[in-house]
Design goal:
Layout: H1 3-11, E1 29-30, E2 32-37, E3 43-48, E4 51-54, E5 57-63, H2 67-75, E6 77-82, H3 88-93, E7 97-98, H4 105-109, E8 113-114, H5 118-122, E9 126-127, E10 136-137, E11 142-153, E12 164-176, E13 198-200, E14 203-205
Parallel strand pairs: 7-8
Antiparallel strand pairs: 1-13, 2-3, 2-6, 4-5, 5-12, 6-11, 9-10, 11-12, 13-14
């Protein structure tokens, strides 16, 4: 075998995998600033990134003891505010704050502190919503008003059963900045203009441009309606 053949064989070898046990599995999801209100009308704003969408349904993963989870369970309403990289400082300013008072020992040990005015701390403007009582974050390019459909406790066979809840919410109204709308359309977001803020393993990232044409994109979005 020639040296050239040996070199080609080496460079095309399949990469190997190693078994690991990471504490978290945040391989990259959009950041959401989730706004809620308490039963007595106090607004709260919390960053989270355990979220995905199916049609007009969003599934939110939250710690059951968080103020956001308590508010959502009590009122059944929220707003999913999607920041772009331009709002990353606002997100980071409230990253180690909680609406719970007193702060749990576990969170206090990690550096969390009580913050009664999350919108003020973040430097964001609370704007009225149309279909829910929870306010919108005006600076975020996307606001999704939503109502609670079901709450699903996770890891029920775990000793800490009930510590994590998947909230299924139905989007009732969508607000977007005109800057991210697709020209010539009434109801479409332009993915070349919209750049979500992404969290991957506790760190902030943005998106670059499209990396490859998509066959799926040949289907008109209205087909999903």
């Amino acid at each position: 075998m020639t040296s050239t053949s040996t070199e080609r064989r080496t460079t095309t070898a399949e990469p190997t995998h190693t078994v690991i046990d990471p504490a978290i599995l945040y391989f990259g999801t959009p950041v959401v600033l989730l706004s809620t209100t308490s039963p007595d009308g106090r607004p709260n704003l919390a960053p989270m990134s355990s979220v995905f969408w199916l049609g007009k349904t969003a599934v939110l993963g939250l710690g059951a003891r968080s103020q956001t989870a308590l508010n959502l369970a009590a009122t059944g309403e929220c707003v999913l505010n999607l920041p772009s990289p331009e709002q990353v400082d606002a997100v980071d300013r409230i990253a180690l704050t909680t609406g719970r008072d007193p702060v749990s020992d576990r969170k206090a040990a990690a550096g969390y502190r009580h913050e009664p005015d999350k919108f003020g701390r973040a430097g964001l403007t609370a704007a009225p919503s149309d279909t829910v009582a929870a306010p919108r974050a005006a600076e975020c390019p996307v606001n999704l008003e939503a109502r609670l459909v079901h709450a699903h406790p996770l890891e029920r066979d775990d000793p800490d059963a009930g510590s994590i809840v998947a909230f299924e919410v139905r989007v009732t109204r969508v607000h977007v900045h005109d800057a991210i709308r697709m020209p010539g359309t009434a109801h479409r977001v332009d993915p070349d203009r919209w750049r979500p803020l992404i969290m991957s393993f506790q760190r902030f990232y943005g998106l670059s441009g499209e990396v490859h044409p998509s066959r799926l994109a040949s289907i008109d979005e209205e087909w999903y309606r």
